[in-house]
Each structure stands twice: as structure tokens, then as C-alpha cells.
Amino acid sequence: MSSTTPGTIVRLVDRDPSITGAEIAAELVPPPQFAHASFESYRPDLDYPSQQAAVDRLQAFSRGWTSSQRPGGFFSWNKKAKPELPGVYLDGGFGVGKTHLLAALWHTAPGRKYFGTFIEYTALVGALGYANAVSLLRGAELICIDEFELDDPGDTMLMTRLLGELMSSGTRVAATSNTPPNALGEGRFAAADFLREIQALSSNFETLRIDGLDYRRRDTTGEAIAVDGESLRRSVAALADRGHTVAVAGFDELIAHLATVHPSKYIRMIEGLEVLAIEDVRVLHDQNAALRLVAFVDRLYDAEVPIVSTGVALSEVFDDDMLGGGYRKKYLRSMSRLVALTTGELPPHD
């Protein structure tokens, strides 16, 4: 008689979660792979001295918490001492460790602090309203924004206004950004674009340039693996028998369901899942649907939920027009994450 506790097979589209502003804020922490990131665990490439220089500068930035907590906020320092800028921007190409360093800085901060992607912060504002989002975040010691989006003027203006209110009350901000799509040297550096887009706040940010090669380059090639229907059904049943929680969804019904759920709730949709099975994947031609899928894949990636799928390989889900358009970089990043999620080993089921 097996001692394994039977698992669960759930229909993903039956999940229509609710989430409060406080719960959204509670999710604004580094993803699991950076839960223990530190300056000590960062491995700088000695061929690129700017990497160690960035570590040293961020460590110095992190030693400013005591000063930033003085009454009156960051700008009330003794006038004889030149105040340190309250914002720092990590400027570098793919895979040089910007997110690791951002998470390491977050771990050094005392008190209330938040870490999330640009999309997560705009989702917070969308779910709560601007005034309530400001009220929730006000008073934080540190706001970390990974992948600050530069391709949506409206959202950029919204975040600039939000950060302006928070920084004026003493909150410090650290950010990385997405290089504008189709820009010269795409995927490399974006400091000039970042500072231009947040021009009202640009004088408050110090830029730290981080040169180097993409340490993940070996993982960003290839394609996702698609299996046949019988293999998918066998895997799902075996995984459930071994005690795993598996969600199943048809691709079209998943895409339709994502349109009915606010992106801030995607994290609740996948809560507790250990594997996601998607049937009959096809190429997408609707940009709104594709962008919702990108946001959903980000949550799966952060939660490290592996995928097994049938139909078109998930790395080919975005059509050629999308890959040549304004959101190209978002789609390329999502494709890379889908490759990682669907080529890794599933929990053992033999």
C-alpha cells in the first residue's frame, strides 16, 4: 500500500481569486531564486571591473539607512555634508546580475520595504487606485523596481509621479530598466533613456554602469518542449498520484480567462501549484492577449512552476509581427522564460 498522499488536479480557469491591497503589497518581495541574494553571493566577473565597483557602491548606499531615517526625511541632512542621492539606477545588459544586486540591496534595508517589477507596481495602482497605492507605500525605507518599463508613456508618467511623492517623503528608490525595443544596441544599456523618461526625477538618481557578458546566455537559446496528448495526460495523472498539485487548462480557455482576471491576481491563480499542464497551444495574433500571457508567465517564472504542454511549442507562441514590434523585448524575455520552464525536469513520476 502506497504511503504517498494523493495530490490534486485542478482546472486553472476555475480559479477566480480575490486579493486585497495589503496582500498585493505582501507579495512585493524578491522572487524565490533571489530570496537569499547578498552582495557576498554575487560573483563579479574580474574581466569587468564595473561589476565589483557596483557592488562596492551599493554597499556604501546601503550604509545610508541610519542617515535616511533622521527626522524630516532624506533631504534634512546637515547642510555641511553633501547628501547622497536617494535613488540609484543599475544600468547594464542582460545577465550581468542587476536583479541579484537589486535583491541584495533590498535585503540590507531595515523596516518596511518593497521589491517588484514595474508591471507589479502598476498593477497595484490599477487595483487600489493611485491615492490608495501612495498611502500604502508611503513611509517605506526602500522601493526596488526591477525592469522599469520604458515603452508605455502613460505608465511611465504614472510611476514617475508615484516615485516623486514617495521620494519627497524620504523613501529611497533603486531600479533597473528594460531597454527600449528596437533601440540601437538593444539589450545593452538604457541609462540615457531611463533618465530622459523620468526627467522630473532624474537628478535624484545615481547611475551605476555594470558591464559584462550574459552569464545565462547558454540558457536563452533553444526552444520549449511540446509533448503529445497521451504523454501529458499520463504525466498529470502520475504526478497527482505522487501527491503533487497539478493544474490543467486548454490554451484558448486560459487566454480567455486571463482577460477576466486582473494581473495583480495572477499570483493567486497559481498559488500552491507545482505543475501547470496546458493543452493545444497555438500561435497568438492578438497583442492584448499576448501581453496578458507575458504577465502570467512572469508569475509562473517567479514561482518556479514547471509547464508541460501540447500543440505549438510555447517558445513559438508569439507571431512574427509581435517579435518585430514595439513590445519585442517583452516577448523575447517571456520566450526565454518559457524555454526555462518547459525544458526543465518535471517532478519525478516514475
How is the topology of this model organized?
Blueprint: E1 8-11, H1 21-26, H2 49-62, H3 65-68, E2 87-92, H4 98-108, E3 113-117, H5 118-128, H6 130-137, E4 142-148, H7 153-168, E5 172-177, H8 191-197, E6 205-210, H9 229-241, E7 245-250, H10 251-258, H11 266-269, E8 275-281, H12 287-303, E9 307-311, H13 320-323, H14 328-343
Parallel strand pairs: 1-7, 2-5, 2-6, 3-4, 4-5, 7-8, 8-9
Number of domains: 2
Helix content: 25-40%
Q: CATH-wise, what's the superfamily of the largest domain?
A: P-loop containing nucleotide triphosphate hydrolases
CATH class of the largest domain: Alpha Beta
List keywords for this structure.
350 residues; alpha/beta; Rossmann fold; 2 domains; five-stranded parallel β-sheet; globular; disordered N terminus; P-loop_NTPase; AFG1-like ATPase; ATP-binding; ATP binding
Give a structural overview.
With 350 residues, the chain is an alpha/beta fold. It has two domains: 138 residues, P-loop containing nucleotide triphosphate hydrolases (Rossmann fold); 184 residues, Rossmann fold. The chain has 14 helices and nine strands. A five-stranded parallel sheet has the order 3-4-5-2-6, sandwiched between helices. Strands 1-7-8-9 form a four-stranded parallel sheet. It is globular, with a radius of gyration of 21 Å. It starts with 7 loop residues before the first strand and ends in a 7-residue tail after the last helix.
